[in-house]
Amino acid sequence: PFSSSARKKMNLKSERRGIHVDQSELLCKKGCGYYGNPAWQGFCSKCWREEYHKARQKQIQEDWELAERLQREEEEAYASSQSSQGAQSLTFSKFEEKKTNEKTRKVTTVKKFFTASSRAGAKKAEIQEAKAPSPSIHRQASIETDRVSKEFIEFIRAYQKPGQDIYKQCKLFLDTMSHKRDLSIEEQSECAQDFYQNVADRLQTRWKVPPEKVEKAMDEVEKYIMTRQYKYVFCPETTDDEKKDLAVQKRIRALHWVTPQMLCVPVSEEIPEVSDMVVKAITDIIEMDSKRVPRDKLACITKCSKHIFNAIKITKNEPASADDFLPTLIYIVLKGNPPRLQSNIQYITRFCNPSRLMTGEDGYYFTNLCCAVAFIEKLDAQSLNLSQEDFDRFMTGQTSPKKQESDSFSPDVCLGVKQMCKSLDLLSQLNERQERIVSEAKKLEKDLIDWTDGITKEVEDIVEKYPLEIKPKSQALAAIDSENVENDKLPPPLQPQVYAG
């Protein structure tokens, strides 16, 4: 709005030139009571900004609708080309040419719009990322990705020129990786490891950055690029990571009966403080799957390990040793059964900054976790000091290890709990005896059947080797002395006589 002195000067100048100025012509077109400016199409400065903002928002909305429509057309064309790729090989090159032209036209339209306003310039990167060749990439980044990007930009500002170089290298790496989706996960891992090494060397040799700042910068670089690459490189479909996850989960579920005493775990969960430490350790190892950055996953493993050391220290009332730590970690993994355990281990191995993974406490605890998983996968009866028969019965669920003996309960435990434990122990013993009797009876039955079959086979073999021949019945033989003509001269047969004695 014009001030009163400005209006007086305008009227004086107009009267000197012989021009009559109507006060109503100087008022704002919107009727707000302020004086307008012809350069602003008759609006005052305030109303002109409002009108300009409305027109700008309308233009933004129209361009967004245009970009979305073009995106849908591109995805439909891509889908139709994939379905008819085998039968229409001749028309595929035409489709690619049309797709390239359409994409170029869209990018030109978006650039034309966004170069006019500095406010919309912040969204330009998101639009360009949305136009990546793969149709599965979403146009808008996730909330976490936006947050990490802002934090990364704020961080590198303190590095000035080295920070600009870091940001340029990261953007170049992400653009390069977007065109290498068809590579194997091992090749992508090598690219990431080479990138880490090159950026660290560049900061040390070219920009002379101190080692402690280099390490901090590399942590932020890893956080930035792996947050954006997470959905492409974590448990990819080209690997058998998911199959290994299911196998480990199934194995841990089958080992639910393993007790701390079998693993020689020096932790007493009866102590409330120790029980809380165990719960926190399990929570940390499970929380590892919710993180995206390898360094954050390592931090969860480190926190879990420190809770384990504290639990051992409280139980034994002395510092824990490495021999106590590994069995306890195995017990925590068995009790927690973390989701996608093998995928997380492989992801950390492939894409973590090697300087952090190979040195320090994070690397030590991660190595112990890998050893614990390997031990669980190869766990057998000898590892738990059990007989093979008991181990097989526990694994199949036929029986479970004995519960805590009633004599070992504390004095304040009620009698009902003790009696219940005695009854459970008695039932467990009776069940074992019954199973043993049934097993022996089945074995005896099998032995009888085998013995009968063996005797039958032996008889058949003998009959086959020595066949039985049945001769026809012969004529009756005459008495020995039937043809003796002097039978009548023979003395009579002797008769038995009884003598009185």
Automatic annotation (TrEMBL):
Record-annotated VPS9 domain positions: 242-385
The residue ranges flagged as biased composition, category Low complexity, are: 78-93
Q: Which residues form the A20-type domain?
A: 22-56
Q: Which residues cross the membrane?
A: none
**Is Transport a UniProt keyword of this protein?**
yes
Q: Can you name one GO molecular function term for this protein?
A: DNA binding
What coarse category fits the chief subcellular location reported for this protein? cytoplasm
Annotated compartments? Cytoplasm; Early endosome; Recycling endosome
Name of the molecule in the record:
Rab5 GDP/GTP exchange factor
